[in-house]
Design goal:
Elements lengths: L2 H20 L1 H17 L8 H15 L1 H6 L15 H37 L13 H4 L1 H26 L11 H11 L5 H18 L7 H7 L2
């Protein structure tokens, strides 16, 4: 199996794990809506709903970590990175992955497993509210999410090595994003001509590409940005 196939396979795992975890937002919306109705219409609030909301949101947040990494969506400081060529970006990424990412995620997996195992052993329940719900299921998500992020991180390391070898970043999976909404709105607008629409989309794509740290600012742009 080639390096690019390994990257694509891991990207796909992270992609669908994130898609599956994203359904928790539907459950969270439903639970909150029901609780608002019970609290303000029936005057019968549920004591443990606060804990349950936190568990749903926390699980959503953690399970989508690998998905976000696969799409290059995590926030990062790019004031130096964006001016580097792809091989320079890959070198910096490799250094940071080995220096911070791997030790940090290994620590998360190790501590999360111990955290979850202890919770299962004692049958832990939440103490935030009276008759709090069990939390050991929720805490089991911590090491699981850590493992998914670690697998994707190893794929990112392979991606960096492939970039160093070829001088170009391997392609990433794509998903519907805000830029697609912009395109749809412009396409339906009766007040924007074709040329303005094209320029707006080119500008949006340039910003999106720069935000993903996979574009290189050329010499002309550097000079224009230098005061």
């Amino acid at each position: 199996m080639t390096a690019r196939r390994v990257i694509a396979a891991v990207d796909l795992i992270s992609y669908w794990s994130g898609k599956a975890g994203a359904w928790l937002i539907v459950a969270l919306t439903f639970v909150v809506s029901i609780e608002v109705f019970k609290r303000y219409i029936l005057n019968a609030p549920t004591a443990w709903i606060f804990d349950f909301n936190n568990m749903l949101y926390g699980s959503l947040f953690m399970l989508c970590g690998a998905y976000t990494l696969a799409l290059g969506g995590h926030v990062r400081a790019d004031f130096v990175y964006i001016y580097l060529r792809p091989r320079g970006q890959a070198t910096m990424d490799l250094i940071l992955y080995f220096l911070f990412f791997i030790p940090g995620i290994l620590g998360l997996i190790y501590a999360g497993y111990d955290y979850a195992a202890l919770s299962w052993r004692i049958g832990e329940h939440s103490t935030v509210t009276a008759e709090g719900p069990p939390v050991y299921h929720f805490k089991s998500v911590i090491p699981l999410a850590g493992i998914l992020v670690m697998i994707q991180g190893l794929a990112e390391i392979v991606r960096c090595v492939e970039c160093l070898r070829t001088g170009a970043w391997p392609s990433r999976l794509e998903d519907v994003e805000e830029i697609d909404v912009i395109g749809t709105q412009l396409a339906r607008s009766e007040y924007v001509d074709e040329e303005s629409r094209r320029q707006a989309m080119e500008g949006a794509h340039a910003i999106d590409e720069a935000a993903r740290h996979r574009s290189v600012v050329d010499d002309t742009e550097r000079q224009s940005r230098t005061p």
